[in-house]
Amino acid sequence: MNKRKNKKTDPLLIGILIGVFVVALTFDLLKWTFNIPGIAWVATAGILGLIYFARTYLNERKRARIIEYRRQYLQKHGDLEQLKQMSPSEFEQYISDLFVQMGYNAFVTEPNGMPCEDLIVSFDDFFATVVCRNGESITVTPEEIKKCESSLEKSNASIAFFITTGDFEEQIHSQSVKLINGQDLMKLINEVTAETKGGQLYQPLKLLHIQ
């Protein structure tokens, strides 16, 4: 008994048929488009513009609500004694949220053995590392700052921030590490939460000039 041979469809023929269909569909679409009255074009443009502005407005409202919610959280937990009682990870997350509120990109890093990289923050081409120390009776020594300075040499960071709820020994001075003690931190929190009230923007690089 003879077996029937399966006839394979020619791929070239399929391609030609699809091409003819696409060309015919495009031609009909163009013909229909050019027959639309001018008033319909104006109405369509108006609707699209309205959708665009409505979406922009809603996104802006959402952004403002997020900023305001984060501002209230920072303000509520921005008491020095309360910050001292936080776990190290909670304090790092709080400081990360504070940087985000200031307009930075910020995230808590995974433990990597680096002495000055609890956080990474950036803004445009500005890039910095942050070390966070909280707790009772903290006094940061020059040796800790020198470790941060050495860490900066191994990274592409513009500067490092050393933020603590305690204080620094009086003889500490650094050109590459910005020192923020407990009192400075309270001033910063108060300024940021005041200036971002109602979803307003904060100027990130102002942080470099806060004494």
Automatic annotation (TrEMBL):
Pfam families, per the entry: Mrr_cat (PF04471)
Highest taxon in the source lineage: Bacteria
Keywords: Membrane, Transmembrane, Transmembrane helix
InterPro entries: Restrct_endonuc-II-like, Restrct_endonuc_IV_Mrr, tRNA_endonuc-like_dom_sf
Transmembrane feature ranges: 12-32, 38-58
All copies of domain Restriction endonuclease type IV Mrr, residue ranges: 83-189
Keyword Ubl conjugation (UniProt): no
Protein name, entry field: Restriction system protein
Organism: Alkalibacillus filiformis
